[in-house]
Amino acid sequence: MNSVKVQGERWFPSEQTFADEMKELWGEWYCDSEVGKLRAVLMHKPGMEVEGITEENFHSYRFRAPMNADRVRQQHDALADVYRNHGVEVHYVQEQRTDKPNAIFARDLVFMTPEGAIVCRPAIPARRGEERAVAATLAALGVPIIKTINGNGYFEGASAMWIDRETVVIGTGSRTNESGASQVEAELRNIGVKNIIRTEIPYGCIHLDSHMSMVDKRKMLIFPWYVSYDCAKQLLDCGVELIEVTNIHEVEQGMCLNFVALEPGKIVTSTGNPETKGLLEKNGIEVTEVLLDEVMNGWGAVHCVTAFLKRDPIGS
């Protein structure tokens, strides 16, 4: 009997997309908005790195004031409890460096997408290296890492903002350069984002959440003097209603735009911004407040300390 020698394995690759297989092979990780019901977050529990921030050295960390370690831990825990009380799973970054007090601001290190995380690369030298512990934690949790900012690029997570599954705002400025923004844009287009709204982050601001934040599926709170005409026009063309907050003290000192939506029309924000709270409630937004004045000494608030890992799809 003659045998026929067969070359090759005679198999064909799977035609399933990564998104189709993601739940089974990786887990349920997803984000396509700033307001879809929040299910899981990544935070960094303040450790040794927040001790010893004094009058003599706080400027070197880009903080606005010294920080009381015990109070910042208590306030951070209180915010995490608010999340848990609303059914949000809270994960913590593991084995973060103890010389990086800015690592509390986890949002800067991760930008989540429907297919996994983009690991960011901070702009300032004082923060470089924080992303390594974040990448290791994401891998341990089973969150796919679809991109790590590389080359001469730098990009921080709050420099981008989901509007819906097909639309993302990306801002360039002191914390995100053109190379970093282009890397993120390319990755987003690869997973189906069609509309990229590019804007410049004003001098004196570092991230988008200093002057714009989504509060509902088609409602955004903005500080109008920092939002460019072109950006505002594109948002309006997308059907986004712009709610204008004009209390400069609450914007700059109270960080009233630095909040997190728990679900459409329901946010958690810092105490101390009564005018903004009233404006939001007038527009049908439910507001939960948490004291974060010690956290804010690092120039960050609710949004800054929270990296999203899972939100319900915006359409559901």
Automatic annotation (TrEMBL):
Gene Ontology MF term list: arginine deiminase activity
Keyword tags: Hydrolase
Gene3D superfamilies: L-arginine/glycine Amidinotransferase, Chain A
Record Pfam families: DDAH_eukar (PF19420)
Database matches in SUPFAM superfamilies: Pentein
One GO biological process term: L-arginine deiminase pathway
PANTHER family, A to Z: ARGININE DEIMINASE
Name of the protein: N-Dimethylarginine dimethylaminohydrolase
Source organism phylogeny: Bacteria, Bacillati, Bacillota, Bacilli, Bacillales
